[in-house]
Each structure stands twice: as structure tokens, then as C-alpha cells.
Amino acid sequence: MVAADWPGADPAWSRELDVPSSSAADEPGTVRRWHLLDNGAELALRGLTPEGTLLCVHGNPTWSYLWRSLLAAGSNPARPWRVVAVDQLDMGFSERTGTFRRLADRITDLGDLTAALGLDGPVVTVGHDWGGVISLGWALSHRDQLAGVVLTNTAVHQPDGTPIPPALRLALHPAVHRWGTTTTPAFLQVTHALARRQLAPAVRAAFRAPYRGAGRRTGVGNFVADIPADASHPSYPALTRVAEGVRGLDVPALMLWGPRDPIFSDRYLKDLIGRLPQARVHRFEGAGHLLAEDRDIASPIFDWLADSLGPNGQFTPHPEATAPPNGQFTPRPEATRPPNGQFTPHPEATAPPNGQLTPHPGGAAWEPLWAPLTSLASGTAAGDTAVAEMAADRHTARSLSWSDLEDSITHLAAGLHDAGVRSGSRVSLMVPPGVDLTVVLYACLRLGAVVVVADAGLGTRGLSRAVKGATPDFLIGIDRALAAAAALGWSGRRISVRDLPAARRRILRVETSLDELTRCGASAEAADRLPAPAPDDPAAVLFTSGSTGPAKGVLYTHRQLAATRDTVAATLGIRPGARLVAGFAPFALLGPALGAVSVTPAMDVTLPRTLTARALADAAAAIDATVVFASPAALRNVLATASGLDPAGQAALARVELLLSAGAPVPAALLEEVQRLVPAASLHTPYGMTEALPVTDISLDEIRAAEADAAAGTVAGAGNGVCVGRPVHGARAAVVPLAADGTAPGDSPVTDPGVTGEILVSAPHVKDSYDRLWLTQRESVRTPGWHRTGDVGHFDAAGRLWVEGRLAHVVTTPGAAVTPVGAEQAIEQLDGVGLAAVVGVGPAGTQAVAAAVETEPPVRRAGPAAPELAGRVRAAARGSGVEVSAVLTVPSQPTDIRHNAKIDRTRLARWATRVLAGGRPGTP
């Protein structure tokens, strides 16, 4: 044993200890020699009193070296913690006992060790792999000392009737087991290869050090053999005791997870969440089984300890700023809602004045999302069309009246309930917007089920990652989605939209269909059997676009969904009876909640640019539309195909009163062109995000006024970004000033004109939390009462918000932070230039600014711009206060797959870095 050869581990931590054994595997009086890494002596030498002890237990075939980052972090004098990382007997550098130690023995062994160490409370257990089960077994036996539990990629239960993971089945196979785990180092090598960040040679050597030679790997083989594959296994009772006992642990818990784990998949995480519902959970996308090697786990663990541990050494509830409980953001007081139930446009007076920086006060009023729908179904409008969808032949494909819609929802909800969908069940909806999706969405919400919505626009990888991370209990989809579920291994019992032939059902493993469930639920007593969700129950997990990294699941409660409805209605004046063409999926689903007649045009909603002018006009004519919602990409294609409109289509669009576009910045020039198609409409571009839809609102007339103010310089702060208007009804907005390094480190929101910073919002309709992303959630609410959006911008003296880009896209030049949007807008005004993007090249803090532009007509190949164009681009950017070092041209900008409008600046920056370093341009 040469501790000096363990990179990242202080040799002083290494110690050995003789421990009397009480395990049934040993004879009475047996003493076992343990090895452990322990920073206790170091803390004592430095005169530091630890706040508690982290008891870290490794799995198979690692050893205490896995926890070296926690040992180092525990020595921080600001928050010292003793960290005891054990080598289990027959593992690491502990004694080779010559006995076969079962799970119950290992739990006893750990108790013997802690008794010999004299550990008292507070103790927080930390476990990985099968060390997680053993650490939890110790926790259940030492509740008087236990203060909390931390788990990384582990499991305590194997569902009945399901096989253990394939990798473990192979390792247990009689023909492979001894050879793979003991005779050769194959099991070690495979485990080390699971690190998603390849282990450095010295680190890999350290992990192998205790297991050189077959004689030192007996414990590795025995550990695998002790996996309880089924109820007949000798360790199954002990595993069951731990699994069921965990349900009674009422201490704080933290689960850190690597989803790319072929052994402990997300289904095991879901099981643990069910047993420890109080746990904070964070999934590190891209990380795998050896999470401690793939990601920094020390920082989140010690942040969690700091959040949870009070000054007296007792654990206290998490402060509101770190993880808001359900109901942190509540709807505005009932008194602000018009008494007649009609919603009026957002009055100017409700926009908070500069300096009003308190978060939204909240309130208790709540009316279920579907209340307007139910009201219309029982009133004089019951027979009128409520929801429709268009066919490619320009005719209405399907429609339901308000009463038919209500009946369909009630019957399906009853059928789903009888099929096992319960309050809290997660139901992934893989159904295109239209009649079917409307019915199943509202049916699930009525039951209190949590709908999971991740659209196909995320792409196959992004969609699969989202669905697997959400671990739905049920998956309802069209054939294509069900085929993907079968091929990609998505979880959840499967329900088809339509009845399928028996053979097809077997292939797709479909249990039933929406049609069948609706028939089964069609009874007079159906409504009486439906449970009623509470306002603060989880209602939906909606996934972001993934334009700045892996798509994030955003959790909403029923109260927050209802507040979204009320905010949209009050801000935009959408009243019951409005007629809405929804070319944007969220509004297709919100229509019935607004009491608006809704129609989905003939298009692929996952590809907004597939909306044509004719399809839009046909949909508008079908319901005599008063409102249209379409994304910028959709509007561009509508304009490009406008020549195909006939007089009837032109007339239908001329009757539109309100047109909304969001999802990406909408240039005023685009709106001006759209205005000619809908001459009677007021054009609005709400600014928002999946976490808060919407945040602000602005009309075309207000955009013109803001741009005039910017050009004239008459209003302080006007310009340098996209003006998105003032906060919507019931919302507050502010910024936290940006530092020179491109971060927004403060927690004091301001609205002073011209101060650029991260945009914050507080409103009743802001999301509850990020789903299973505790660290992301913690950062987003670190300013108490506010959601930090990740966008950057500033206010002008008139109280209007100007968006300057994403915090992640800020360029950090020497001594200054550069936001991209202002310079991009200036460049896009040049003749012969289409879309422009400004990105940083080089190390943070010393970055150079590069501009990538589309030309008109487009260039055939990407690469450095011609000198004349480069000069004009630099001059335009300089006029906005930005010095551009390099100018590149691209045939088209890379955009995120979902909106087709947001430029993927992260991808573009990587490409520009490669090109400017002399690499082949290729395609960005």
C-alpha cells in the first residue's frame, strides 16, 4: 500500500484500525483489520471542530479512494466536516477475510467499525453502488446518530418480474462469473470504462491498486454473487428490510445521479424518490455510473449541508431561497380579478414602476385550469365548436363542441383512473396538438396525474433523454411514438391513441387505447368517481427547448397553470368566445382553458416553418378566427408562401384581431410584413420562457415607439437589444447587474435605466421547480422570491425591458462583458446581410469577438468573410460599442431544432474557434 501514489488523496488520510467483529460471518472474538481514509486527524491538528461526520461507503469494485474529493472539501476551515471513507472488508486495502460476507454481514461490519471509531452524531451517510444499500442499512440501525443521507447511483429494490441489468446478469452467469470478477481484472476494467470522462492513467492505477492479483479480488466476485436477483436469494430478506425501512427515514436526503448508467438506470432513481420523497435530486446529464469521477459532487454535497444544517448541529428545513415549496408563487389576490369573470387587457397602471423590487406578494385564489371549459359546456354555448383540427385537404378533420369536449374528458378520465392512472402518476403525452391531445391532457389533469410534455422537435436524442429522465408511469402516444418507446427503452405502461390490431399491440406492448378507455369510462357516475387535485399538487412537467444545453423539465403545480391562464387572459384580453388559431403547441393546449374556440392548422407543429399561408388562412376561415398565435419561424414561411392565398383566405386573415408571436426574438421588419396580411390585427410579441410564459408583452406600435426613442436618444437606456415591453399582468421584473467576468453574482435586483444584468421575474405563474435538477433550481431561486431567467438585458427610463441575449452567451473580453444582441442588430441592418450572430472565441476573460453572418444571396461555403463585407460588419458593430476581431460567413445559421429560430451560439462559437485556429470550416 503506497498512499503517495493515489492522486488527489492526502497520504495522511490513510489509516488502519483493528475492529472486533460481531458479524454472523465470523467466529466470536474475531478481530478484523480495516483500512479507511479519514481526515479527522488533520482537522484536529488544525484545531478545527467538525460540524459532523460524512460516513462514505463505496460499492463494487471501487474503494475509499472514490471519495477523495469529499475528504478534501471536508477540510475547508469555513465549514469543516470529518469525512470517514471506509474500505469494506475484502475490498480496497482492508483485510481479506476468507469468508463470504452477505449484505446483512456488511451492514453489521459497518456498525462494528463506527462503534470502534466512536462516531457520534450528526452523521450523514454517503453511498454509491451497493455501498448505497449498506449505508442505508447502517442508517436504519443508527437513527439516533443519523442526520441525513446522500446517495449516488444505487438501488434498494428490484421490481418483481423484471430482470436485473444485463451487465450484472452477465457477471453472474456461471460461465463468466469467476473468470470475469476474480481470475481476471475484467470487471474492474469494465467498471473503470464507465467513467464518461476517461480516467487519467494515474487515477485508473490508483483504483486498481488494491486488486492486483486474483487473491485480492475474491471480494469483488463475492460482492457480485451476493446480488439478490430474486426472492430466493439469501440476501433478499436483508435487501427488503432496507428497502422498506427507508420509507420511514424522515431525515434530509440528497440524490446525485448519473443517467448514463447501464446498471442503475433512472428507474432505480424513481424508486428511491418514492421511498424518500423529501430528497433533493439532481441528475447530471451526460454523467454515468462513476458519478464522482464524471462530475464535481463535493460542491453540491457541501452546499446541501450548508442549506440544511443549523448552527446547533441539527438539520433544519431548507430555506425558501434554495428550493421553494409548492405554492411559493401563488396567483394574484382574488380582488384583482374582475367580478364579472371577464378579463380586460393589461392596464398600464399594473406595470411596476422603477424601484418596485419586491417579489410578487402572491395570494390564495385559485380556479382549476379547466373551469372555463366546464362552464361553457353547461351553458348556452354547449353546442358550439370548442376545438378542431384541420386536414391537409383544407377541410376540418375533426371537431368537438363544448359539451362533447367535456363529456370526452370526463369519460376518458374515468377510463384512465380505472386503468391505474392515479394522482401523482406521470403520464408522457406523445400526441400531436389537436382534438386527441386536448382531451387526454385535460383528462389527466382532472385526475391529478402529472402530464409530461416533451415535443418531437427536441430530436430523437433530446426527446429520449427527456422521457427517460422524467420516468413516466404511462406513455400515451401515436404509433410512431410507441415504436420509438419500444426501440429506445422508454419507461411506462403504453396506451395507444387509436385501437390497434392485436399483432400491432403485442409488438408495441400496448395495453389499451384512448378509444377503449373512453368507452369504458362512459357512465353517468364517471364524474363522481374522479379525485380532485389540490391547487399545489404537481400538474405538469414541460421541457424547455434545449437551446442552451440539454432540455430541462419544468414542474408546474395546478395553481401555477391556472395562473398562467389568468395572466394570458388579463394581459392580452382573450375572453371566452375568442376564436384561436394555434400554430404554437402551448397555446393549442391553453385555448380551452381560456374559453377560446381553438383550431390546429394543417402543419407539423414540431417544425414551425411547415406552416403555410394557405394552411393558416384555412384554419382561420374554419372558425372565423379572431386570434392567431405562431412562432417567428412559422410567420416567415407564411410570408414566403403568401402568394398562394386566394381571396377567401385573404378575407379570413383580414378578420383577425390579435396576432401573437413568441418563442424567439421577432424583428420589427418581420412584423411589418405580417401586418399587411392581417391589417386589422394588433400584433404582440410576448417575451417569456418555459419557466414563465409570459413575462412581458409589447405591441408593434410600442416597438416602433421604443425604436424611435432609441434612435433619437430621448429616453435613457433605450436601445442595445430587443425591446420586449413591460411586465405582464401580476408580474414583476428586475435585473441583477452583470460583472466584468460575464456573471451576475449579486442578489439585489434593480430596475435602474441602462444597467445590464441577468433578468429576474416574480409572478404567480412562474414554475414551481426544475424537475430532478436540484442544483439548477437552487441557482434559479438564489435571489429569494425571484426566478433568475438566464437572460440578460436592461430597462430604459420608460420602464421597458430590453433583452440583450443569454447569460451563457455573454462574451468576456479583457476587462469587459459584451452582450451579443445589440451588435447583431446593428450588423443585420447592413445591405446584403441576413441573420448575424456574435460569439466569443478563446479562454474566458480574454475572448475575442467574432461575428458570423448570413449573406443575401447566401454563400455556398462557410469561412472568413470577404474584406469589404468584413469592414462593413466591423464598422456596424463598432457603432453599437462592440469591437469585432473576426468576421465569418455561413450559408445559414445553426438554430435549435425546436424553434428553428434561436441561433445556437454555443455550437457556433465552437465552430468559429476551430476555423480561426486554422481548421477546415465545414458546416457550423
Strand order of the largest sheet: 1-2-4-3-5-6-7-8
Task: Give the % helix.
Answer: 25-40%
Beta-strand level of the residues, as a percent range? 15-25%
Shape: globular
CATH superfamily of the largest domain: Alpha/Beta hydrolase fold, catalytic domain
Q: What is the straight-line distance between the termini?
A: 50 Å
The CATH topology of the largest domain: Rossmann fold
Please explain how this structure is put together:
Helix 3 (103-117) crosses helix 4 (130-141), helix 14 crosses helix 15 (402-418) and helix 23 (613-623) packs across helix 25. Helix content is 33%, strand content 20%. The chain is built from 31 helices and 36 strands. The strands form six sheets. Strands 1-2-4-3-5-6-7-8 form an eight-stranded mixed beta sheet, sandwiched between helices. The protein has 924 residues and is an alpha/beta fold. Strand 3, helix 2 and strand 4 (82-86) form a beta-alpha-beta unit. The two termini are 50 Å apart. The chain has four domains: 3-308, 3-Layer(aba) Sandwich (Rossmann fold); 371-606, ANL, N-terminal domain (Rossmann fold, 3-Layer(aba) Sandwich), CATH 3.40.50.12780; 693-763 and 791-808, no CATH class; 810-924, ANL, C-terminal domain (GMP Synthetase, Chain A, domain 3), CATH 3.30.300.30.
Task: Give the tags.
924 residues; alpha/beta; Rossmann fold; 8-stranded mixed beta sheet
Summarize the structure.
The protein is α/β, with parallel strands linked by helices and 924 residues long. It contains 31 helices and 36 strands.
